[in-house]
Amino acid sequence: MSGIDLTIVIECTTGEITGRCDGAANLAAWLAQARELSGRSEVVIAAPRPVLPPDGGAGGVEVRGLEVAGAGYYALKNAGAEAARGEIVLFTDIDCRPAPSYLVTLLEAFRDPGVACVAGRSFYDGEGLVTRLNTAHSFGDLHRQPGYVERGLVLSHNVAVRRSALQAQPFGPYAGRIGGDRHFLDRVRAAGHRVLLVPGLVIHHEDISYNLRGTLERHLREHLLPVHYGTVGQRFSAAWTVASVLALRPLLRLKRVAQAGPRVGLGGRHWPAALLVNAGYWAFDLACVFAVLAVPRLRRRWLRFVYG
Predict the structure, then answer these.
(1) Whole-number CA gyration radius for the chain
(2) What is the separation of C-alpha 245 from the centre of its chain, rounded to a whole number of angstroms?
(3) Structure pTM?
(4) What distance in Å separates the CA atoms of residue 190 and residue 245, rounded to the nearest whole number?
């Protein structure tokens, strides 16, 4: 027994997408809450280059830097999982900030010995209408009724698991930016566990859509999803990508707006704007996806980013 109740694993590559992420402030928010806990906790900062961790300060919080040279998103999370010593292991990203009382709510959920894994709800930072629509587009699955997750995905920036239920390489062998979330959920379920959605576990996530690189990253990652997603057999399919950009993703966005609805501050009067924003994203995605498919250099670059 390590005597550590909670490990917070923070992955760092997402902070480089827009160049505007205030990772220091986000880390300070996690540390401030960890210091308020009655038990011991630790923070593991996983990055592909050397990390100089801040002082954990008073409150029994140890902060460790974990360098995994050249590692990608899921490889860093896997390394953090291996290094974790806490009885509960929380996974998040450096571009995420916890809402007040997040960690207290997290540990309270795990007081039930039958709970092995929990997930929370995520919101993009900001109160503007487009930001709320982006929240629904990206995180709508997490804004359905609380309870056990039966459909959809949990996201690896807002999920926690008991170390006793944590398997080796929980996010799989994926070198790129897709596959690990599905792999994690499937492994949890295969071990006989369920994921409890806890509404009070709220993450505020940087809205990368107000940055061209961020918009490209998010939208191309959505459309370049593979067939056999989240399995060792996942592979790129041009036909699936074309179907996604023409119809599947625009329809999914509208479904998620309806699904998230009042929980992200959207009602009936917002549907004209929702349709207009969706049409704009559809036109943007058409241009970008077909450019990537048509230009070999761009296709190689983006497939390397998404698939590794």
Answers:
(1) 19
(2) 22
(3) 0.94
(4) 32
